[in-house]
Design brief:
Helix content is 16%, strand content 35%. It is an alpha+beta fold. The protein folds into two domains: 1-35, Ubiquitin Ligase Nedd4, Chain: W, CATH 2.20.70; 38-173, Nucleoside Triphosphate Pyrophosphohydrolase (Alpha-Beta Complex).
Length: 178
């Protein structure tokens, strides 16, 4: 950040009074500009034991497979955002969404919230954000072509839980790869 979004003055990096972290602060209007983690919301859609994946049409990871997910918007809940992303990326509707996973990824300042749900029907397809949308049996999941480590983690956890027929909401932290 270089300039204050309130008055346009160049900002400085300092610890504001009463705070304990470096922040961008405007020396003119004293606005403190907080930079907080981004929240990504998504759905793990399932239909007859198959998982719906989208092949990304946009960067990052263009051409790789992912679950329908994206950045949460202001004025929406995590569930509303996840349902919106599923519709935007896969033109898919789901039923019975249930909170499934929370991933903290501090090294990239992101928090992921995933729901699991059943596809409402087989009316899905590509969008401006996805070149392909397809259902995959467990043995056909393109593991080497998945876009993000968190997607791999949530699918593996889901498949393990499905084998046990026991789903529990879980929270995990993904550390930087060594």
């Amino acid at each position: 950040m270089n300039y204050c979004s309130e008055c346009g003055t160049p900002v400085t990096l300092k610890i504001p009074e009463g705070d304990n972290r470096l922040r961008f602060v405007c020396p003119n209007c004293n606005t403190v500009h907080y930079q907080n983690p981004l929240v990504i919301v998504g759905i793990l859609p399932e239909y007859n034991q198959q998982i719906l994946l989208c092949k990304r049409a946009i960067e990052p990871q263009k051409g790789r497979w992912t679950l329908p997910a994206g950045f949460m918007e202001n004025d929406e809940s995590t569930l509303e955002g996840a349902l919106r992303e599923c519709q935007e990326e896969a033109h898919a509707s789901v039923i019975d969404p249930a909170l499934y996973a929370l991933y903290d990824i501090p090294y990239i300042n992101q928090v992921y919230v995933f729901y699991r749900a059943q596809l409402a029907n087989l009316d899905f397809g590509p969008s401006a954000e996805s070149t392909e949308v397809a259902l995959f049996d467990e043995q056909d999941i393109p593991w080497d072509e998945l876009a993000f480590p968190v997607v791999t983690a949530v699918i593996k956890r889901f498949l393990s839980d499905r084998k046990k027929d026991h789903f529990e909401v879980f929270n995990d932290v993904i550390e930087r790869r060594k």
